[in-house]
């Protein structure tokens, strides 16, 4: 089978096309025939130690496809089922999947839409529900709102009944995101946007901020928080992994600051997140309240071009690669 491996040289991530045997599922595993996959910045970033692969490893963490074979003991899926899943090595014609991280695809969703879901919407679930405890009527701020996780957080926030402020460096992106429910758009790049967030909330501040940008947006996210506000640190698209922490505000306003990363999670923790996603997010995907936003679709042999497009920051939502 054809597959791509990723290796990092300094801050550069390189994709290598390889030919490897089709794997066989062990007991408790699924073998998925991949139809589509999508790109995630976390898998591509070489500047972050947790994601670096200096020796090379199978690339890609999102897949949608058909169950080709099920290992001994797997009863929740059978051959031919349409499945979307998180797994290591999804930039391939076939990939081994833990059934606990797989979900049946609703019939109305296309392969492209399904591939845009797993990592982005599970991450949004972790940031907004599992740790963010977002409630109806609260204010949510998403810095980097046009990214895959950013759009997922916007959509999930609206389903939860929150009012959503999105921050992006491109006014055109913010205008387009009004169609999926964005309440307030702030056009800012590498600058303090907190005064505009406070103005939008009547001086109260936001209850939850999701920082997908990195260190350059951390201070503004913190200053935008209301009393008892929560701040999720999710991404570093700016490459800045350092920021000043306002201890007085953290203490005086009783703020919570937490990180969202797949890197330290055990299989049981990943399975718990998938169960939460299936319970709290899948109903909205199944009935159409949430429609995945796919920016562009590339053929498999143009995956390096898709990577360059993602790294340019031009997309709104997810960039998908199709294998057939």
| Alpha-carbon Rg, integer | 19 Å
What structural class results from the helix and strand content?
alpha/beta
Helix content: 25-40%
* Counted beta strands: 16
Distance between the termini: 13 Å
**Largest sheet report:** 7 strands, mixed
| Global morphology | globular
Topology order in helix (H) and strand (E) letters:
EEEHEEEEEHHEHEHEHEHEHEHHEHE
The total count of helices amounts to 11
Could you list the spans in which at least 5 consecutive residues all have pLDDT below 50? Answer: none
Average predicted confidence as pLDDT? 94
What is the percentage of strand-forming residues? Answer: 25-35%
Briefly characterize the structure.
This protein has 324 residues and is α/β, with parallel strands linked by helices. The chain contains eleven helices and 16 strands.
């Amino acid at each position: 089978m054809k597959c791509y491996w990723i290796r990092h040289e300094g801050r550069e991530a390189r994709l290598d096309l390889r030919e490897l045997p089709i794997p066989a599922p062990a007991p408790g595993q699924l073998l998925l025939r991949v139809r589509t996959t999508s790109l995630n910045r976390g898998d591509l970033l070489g500047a972050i130690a947790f994601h670096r692969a200096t020796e090379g490893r199978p690339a890609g963490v999102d897949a949608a496809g058909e169950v080709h074979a099920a290992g001994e003991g797997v009863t929740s899926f059978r051959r031919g089922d349409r499945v979307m899943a998180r797994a290591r090595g999804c930039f391939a014609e076939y990939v081994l999947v833990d059934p606990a991280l797989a979900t049946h695809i609703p019939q109305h969703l296309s392969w492209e839409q399904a591939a845009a879901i797993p990592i982005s919407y599970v991450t949004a679930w972790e940031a907004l529900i599992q740790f963010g405890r977002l409630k109806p009527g609260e204010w949510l701020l998403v810095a980097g709102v046009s990214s895959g996780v950013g759009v997922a957080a916007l959509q999930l926030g609206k389903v939860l009944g929150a009012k959503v402020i999105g921050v992006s460096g491109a006014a055109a992106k913010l205008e387009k995101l009004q169609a999926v429910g964005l309440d307030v758009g702030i056009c800012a790049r590498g600058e303090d946007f907190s005064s505009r967030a406070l103005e939008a909330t009547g001086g109260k501040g936001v209850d939850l901020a999701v920082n997908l940008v990195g260190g350059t947006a951390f201070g503004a996210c913190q200053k935008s928080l209301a009393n008892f506000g929560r701040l999720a640190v999710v991404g570093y698209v700016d490459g800045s992994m350092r920021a000043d922490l306002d201890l007085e505000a953290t203490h005086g306003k009783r703020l919570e600051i937490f990180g969202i990363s797949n890197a330290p999670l055990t299989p049981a923790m990943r399975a718990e997140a998938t169960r939460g996603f299936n319970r709290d997010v899948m109903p909205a995907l199944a009935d159409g309240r949430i429609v995945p936003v796919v920016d562009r679709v590339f053929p498999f042999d143009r995956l390096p071009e898709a990577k360059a497009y993602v790294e340019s920051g031009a997309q709104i939502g997810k960039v998908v690669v199709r294998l057939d």
